[in-house]
Amino acid sequence: MISTKILYNAVFKTDQVDDLDKFQPLPEPTGSYPYRLNLGNRLSETVPGKMVFHMVGDTGGLKSADAQKQVAEKMAEQHLNAANEHDKPAFLYHLGDIVYHYGEAEQYDEQFLKPFETYPAPIYAIAGNHDTDINPDCDSHYESLEAFYTAFCNTCPKTIHFGTQSNRKSQVQPHVFWTMESPLATIIGLHTNVPKYGHITKEQKNWFIKELQNAAKFRSDKAIIVCMHHAPYSADTNHGSSKPMIEFLESSFEEAGVKPDIIFSGHVHNYQRFTKQYQDGKTLPFIVAGAGGFDELHQLADPFDSNYSTKSDLFNQVQLDNYCDNRHGFLKICIEKTPFSFTIQGEYYTVSGLNIDEEASLFDRFTIDLTGR
Length: 373
Known about the structure:
This protein is an alpha/beta fold. It has six helices and 16 strands. Helix content is about 15%, strand content about 25%. An eight-stranded mixed sheet has the order 2-6-7-8-9-11-10-13, with helices on one face. Strands 5-4-3-14-15-16 form a six-stranded mixed sheet, with no helix packed on it. Strand 8 (about 225-230), helix 6 and strand 9 form a beta-alpha-beta unit. Helix 5 crosses helix 6 (about 245-255). The longest helix is centred in the N-terminal third of the chain and has 15 residues, at about 65-80. About 45% of the residues are buried. The mean pLDDT is about 95.
């Protein structure tokens, strides 16, 4: 009997929930419009022409902290054991869902500050749906994103008051959606709110279009990276793809006349690497990296299951190139520019889950050539 290998690809769930009532209004920004943070001399461990950093999402967890601790420790080991200073990740960019299941301050110590206490570089973040949500059963009132702002959007580096023994200071990101400016990349971070498939306001969309257009002015020297929590494309059983996020991105690209070089997201608890081919010849990778620690991993959906649909014009020219749905892991990104080449290289590492002393294993590698664009 000949077995047929399943060719997984992006799916929509056929019974998608409508939970827009969960949308939360945003706090006031702590910085000035257009909410840009210039890393400048913060990148002390980088050299001209090279930038290395980590990226991961969905690290929080309530049932077991083993996976998130292992992921955090293996990223810290990569930093400490780098062959030279040039290869040390300069920072970690978190793709959201730092704590579960609601963004309560009391959860940050066990789910974020303690596991990442030994991570030796700065940590920046966008907020996930769980970071943004409010626990309806909480005895004490708090505002949406209140703890996230304390940890990541402070006006100056301060001791995080809900960290019992943490030495990590608060970050100074200017808003919950914001742009990181660095010598080799413009990283635009979106906030996709609480609903299961995300929601972005008109105000944020207008900001995003302008940030894409501004980033395009420097694209001969800088990669354009977009980060968002809700994954536009996914082949998993729990969420599937997000039609609102796909339509938001495509309409924004059309209005801006600009497409980024790569898009990263979390929300789905696995690793998936998609590419989309556009009629103008652009190949745009969409990376899902949400297996950072939450104990429940999301398997890929059987495309022949009636609970999922692969038939949509929104999936035209979209291909799943690689995936890992049974191990936790994280990304290491290297952007390098020489007089002869300009590339983004991504490496996805998995952790064993059993032997904490075992090194992280390289699972996937991809390269985006930006030379001469």
